[in-house]
Model the fold of this input.
Amino acid sequence: MTKVDHTGLPFMKMHGLGNDFVVLDARARKIDVTPALAQALGDRHKGVGFDQLAIMTNEADDLHLKFYNADGSVSGACGNATRCIARHVMQETGQSSLRLITERGVLTAEDAGDGLTSVNMGHPQFDWADIPLAHEMDTLSLPIDGTPVATGMGNPHCTFFVDDVDAVDLATFGAAHENHLLYPERTNVQVAQIIGDDHIRMRVWERGVGITLASGSSSCATAVAAARRGLTGRSVQIDLDGGTLHVDWRDDGVWMTGPTTHVFSGTLTSAFLAGLT
Done:
């Protein structure tokens, strides 16, 4: 069994529109992260609490990020955490842009001014095998009640367009569709409402987490789905429960822009960590 470092562990608590994260900086110190550590940290009563855990490492002078969900499972992408960490590193180094390596690939982040941070989340995936889905099908119109759209943004997504997002019992609806048989790796579930020209209201259920106040990759997937359906253009405002993001689907990928917050820094005690072995 991998042993956790018991000498106390620094961490940062951040959020993007209420989509919250614990960030561990392993650039100068090796940190052994296990699913048990992720689950314990993610417990909002007995740990710190988060939607995702992010681990920063340096490899060949590149900043690498790895993400875990609150249930201890690995997340391939986390747009808001990527923006939060990018803002932290840009303030730390004085850079106005940087590269970050994730399972999604090489992502570019930029200071967008006025305290906002942008990240290019890469090109969306439309092929059923890349998302992935269980078998070949039309990803623009899934054979599920409500005919949602399937999109890959490093994570699988299932976007339903509805008349009133607030009328949906998201706790029941999200849980039911996260584990749908068409999604062998589970899925993030979005309910989206077109409320004006290039303006979307969206709520989200994240796989391995549940209802979240915001989600960056879900926002990107919803913007792409709306554009593919011809409901909006490729540059949209998305209003989430936690605030507003702007998503711009460009030729070089899907750019997402919004605010970030570094709430506090702390240290996990040796006693807390010792209980994980």
Remarks:
- The helical segments are 35-42, 79-93, 170-178, 216-229, 270-274.
- The chain has two domains: 9-120+260-274, 149-251.
- The first strand starts at residue 9 and ends at 16.
- The chain has a mean pLDDT of 95.
